[in-house]
Structure formats: structure tokens, C-alpha cells
Amino acid sequence: MDQTVIDIGGRLIGQGHKALLVAEVAQAHDGSLGLAHSYIEAAARAGVDAVKFQTHIAAAESTLDEQFRVKFSYQDDTRYDYWRRMEFTPAQWRGLAQHCRDQGLLFLSSPFSLPAAELLEELEVQAWKLASGELGHRPLLEFMAATGKPVILSSGLSGWPELERVVAFFRGRGCPLALLQCTTAYPVPLEQVGLNLMEEMGRRFGAPAGLSDHSGSLFPALAALARGAAILEVHITYDRQMFGPDAAASLTPAELSLLAQARDAFFTLAAPLDKDALAADKAPLRAQFGRSLALIQDRPAGHRLSAGDLTLKKPGGGIPHEDMARLIGKRLARPVEDRRLLRWEDIED
Predict the structure, then answer these.
(1) What's the rounded Cα separation, in Å, for the pair 73 and 213?
(2) Cα 130 from Cα 145, distance rounded (Å)
(3) Is 46 exposed, middle or buried (0-12, 13-18, 19+ CB in 10 A)?
(4) β-strand pairing of 292-295 with 310-313
(5) Deepest in the core among 33, 154, 184, 189, taking most CB within 10 A?
(6) Is the pTM of this model over 0.85?
(7) Are 349 and 330 spatial neighbours (Cβ–Cβ below 8 Å)?
């Protein structure tokens, strides 16, 4: 089964199609429902295709034994407390999903527990985003696969053997699949972005491949576009000085807007051209920019032309250089100025 192009919510993704641009809100809302909605508006104005959240249900996902990757929070005593503060109610999630759809955006969210996936399924999410740390979460994978929906798989914590197993798992159940190269660091140094791995994923698995970037720089996403990324996922923040674990690894709305413009421009630039058809279309310009035979200086009627009399001047469309030999030894039928092109009627028969 050919899966080099997949359909997510009516958008074709893969070779020959515009890259899907996803604004990752993640925890940038810091538990504020209003801020979460405002990011949807900002992402829509920037011109992205999708907004992605993370759906956390602390009691189903975590324990008090989970440690902070980086202790950034002044108000959460434990990582479990932080996840609780990041929760929204099912009704609030429904409002976020509807807001995305009202803005013409795909609503996506990474579930981090089976209850979170069940909630997203009730909200009719159109594709699954499988986070890097969840590839070994078999009950979650089984639930996703049972829906038959497309799966966007991040690879930041996996080597090739695990990726091969997970790809085979979803494909064995008929799920369309896309893969994202991802380096789990916030922010990730440019030398660790791994664009070669994005390309290798596309070759190995015959699937749309893209980049989930955490660099906080436009450059990786632009380079990924130039190398054929099918999907770009970048974090969004109003300012990289804002509070939160992902702010330094995010792009601002203005940068996201520039990325969306670049994505559209790169897609247009990739349109194939026929060289001969293009040349035929530009024939009038060829005449304008071309050259024709003219005199180096004014000559009187009866002057016998020599090679030393002739030069090439703009525009084209007059006597071409290829006919120069036919003029040598001919006499001028009338005076000719050097300020205009030679014409055949200037030459005696």
C-alpha cells in the first residue's frame, strides 16, 4: 500500500503537496484557558494549518514519583502538580477544538494517557500525534490503531529498531503514517536538529517525513522545507522570555507568519518548468534584450561595408550577427547613422 501521500482532515500530505504547518501550543498556555484560545487566534493569523495541544490528565498519566526534567516552576511542588494545573475539562477541550475548526485549522493534541486519547476521540480529532516518549505505551498505541486514523509519530527518543517496530505495528493495522524527526532537547542545538534523519525516515519507510523542531530558531524549519519536509511542527510563544519549559524552544507569531510565507513560496518555487516553453514565452523579451547589426559610425550612401564598419547593438529583431557575411562588400543605398540599426532596405541589391 502506497503511503507516500496521506490525508489528514482533507489535507493531502506528502510528495507534491504543500507542507503541513503545525503550531504546537503544548504548555505555553500555562494552564490558562484564555491564553490557550488566544494562541489559536495567533496561529490562525500567522497562516498555519493546524494547532496542536497536549492533553494531560495527571491522575491517569503521572505519579508523585515523576521528577521535573528541569525544575522551572515556582508554584508547583511536584511534576504531578504541574500536570494537574495543565488540565482542562472535557467541555473546555471541546471549546478549544471548536475554536480551531472555526478558524479553519486542524485541531490536534498529543494524548499522554488512555483516558486522554478517549477524550480526544470523543472530540473527533482527525489524526493522532504520538509523542516521542509514548512509543512504548502499548495500550495507547492499540487504542490509536483501532480507530484507523492517521498517526503522526515523533521520533525524538527512539533508535531505528524501535521506529521500525512501531511503523510495522501501525501499518499492520492499516493506519496512514507520517514521521517526524525530533531531537528531545529544549532548545536543541542546531547541530543536533538532524535533517539527514528526516530524509532517511522518508526513504526507509516510504512515508511523509518532516521535522518537529525545538530550536527556537527559524533556520531549521526553513532548511527542512528546502529539503522536502512534508510536515513542520514548531512551538509557539508570544515571547521567548515567557514562563514555561518550552518558551526558549519556540517561535513567536511573527516568526511563524514568516515561516508560513516561506512554506508557500517554497512550494511555488518547486513547480516544474519546461525550458523550451519558457523560452518561447519570453521571445518578446529576447528581442528586446538581444542585439542586431549596426554601424560603428555614420556612413554615406555608396559606402562599401567591411567587417570594421559593423558591430552589435540593442535591440534584437534586426539583421542578426549570423547574416554579417552577407553584408561584407555591399554598398549602402542611402546614408545610415550609427544611432539606429541597419535594415535590409539600407543595402543596395
Answers:
(1) 23
(2) 11
(3) buried
(4) antiparallel
(5) 154
(6) yes
(7) no
Alpha helices in 13-85 (DSSP H): 33-46, 58-61, 79-85
Give me the helix-helix angle, 114-122 and 90-102, nearest 10°. 50
Amino acid at 118: E
Q: 122-132 burial, b for 16+ CB within 10 Å, e for fewer?
A: ebebbbbbbbb
Q: Which of 152, 141, 158, 232 is nearest to 195 (CA)?
A: 232
Distance, C-alpha 45 to centroid of its chain: 17
Whether 182 contacts 249, CB under 8 Å: no
Contact 286, 255 (CB under 8 A): no
What are the angstrom distances between the C-alpha of 335 and each of 93, 204, 280, 298, 312?
87, 74, 36, 8, 19
DSSP string, 7-23: EETTEEEETTSPPEEEE
pLDDT tens-digit profile, the chain (349 residues): 568 999 999 999 999 999 999 999 999 999 999 999 999 999 999 999 999 999 999 999 999 887 877 666 678 789 899 999 999 999 999 999 999 999 999 999 999 999 999 999 999 999 999 999 999 999 999 999 999 999 999 999 999 999 999 999 999 999 999 999 999 888 999 999 999 999 999 999 999 999 999 999 999 999 999 999 999 999 999 999 998 888 999 999 999 999 999 999 999 999 999 999 998 999 889 888 999 999 999 999 999 999 999 999 999 999 999 999 999 999 999 999 999 999 999 999 8
What is the signed CA dihedral for 30, 252, 68, 116, rounded to 10 degrees?
60
CB-CB contact of 24 with 256 (8 Å) = no
